[in-house]
Amino acid sequence: MRTHNPAHRLAAVAVLALVATSAAACGGDDKSASDDSSSATPSASTGSDNTPVLTEDQLSQVVLAPENFPGDWTQAPSEDDDSDGPGCLGEVSAITHDIEKSARVAYDYTYGDAGIPLITSSASSFDDHDALVAAFDHVQDVLAGCTTVTGPDSDGTEYDLTLDYSDELTSDVVDDQINLDLTGTITTQGDDATISESITLVRMGPNVLTTAMVDLGDPTMVAAADDYAQIALDRLVSVVLGETPDSTVGPEVA
């Protein structure tokens, strides 16, 4: 349904901005959403470092769960967005587009009636470990030279964002990591809003975990993204080790 309330419309666009930027960093399409290989049985496939290729059932245990959220959060499946992002994120999309996922699970968690802040938690596995590593390296090279994200997306929304990138690892069990903080303005239908996004992607072997948060206005609220990213990483490690993830509760955001 079309919304005529500028705040609600901008909140919806901010959500789409998060999905687009996080999808650009992950890239690719699922091999099959209903592939019979997705089951509770651990995969026999492994990456070159012997980290297993996780099944869809295992990935569903990796992503953030409702019990990880305090207060008024709502869970909904997150749609994969294969559209090109604005600015340098479009180049990231081009790099990752042809890398096919073997499985993917993703959920959006929105807060309160306005649906903002929003946290997206997704986990994907890839059969071609070497192609994933090469793409991750290429994406890191592009992002290292990208300090702004400007221009329109396919829907005509204009972006004017500052991008802060690092590849600092937050755990010694992680093989690769991408940390993005984006702040600035988006303009849609003549309305401007300040948005803040924080996106963390970690790679363990042939598996990629993404935790991302977006909010309107005050950028300090997305600091909670680091806490939720750590909870998700702990869940990933537990699943890789064949253990049941803890039900750690993240911080309040209001």
From TrEMBL:
The organism's place on the tree of life at top rank: Bacteria
Ribosomal protein among keywords: no
Biased segments, Polar residues type: 50-61
Keywords, sorted A to Z: Signal
Keyword Signal applies: yes
UniProt-annotated stretches for the region Disordered: 26-91
Signal sequence extent: 1-25
Biased composition (Low complexity): 35-49
Protein name: Sensor domain-containing protein
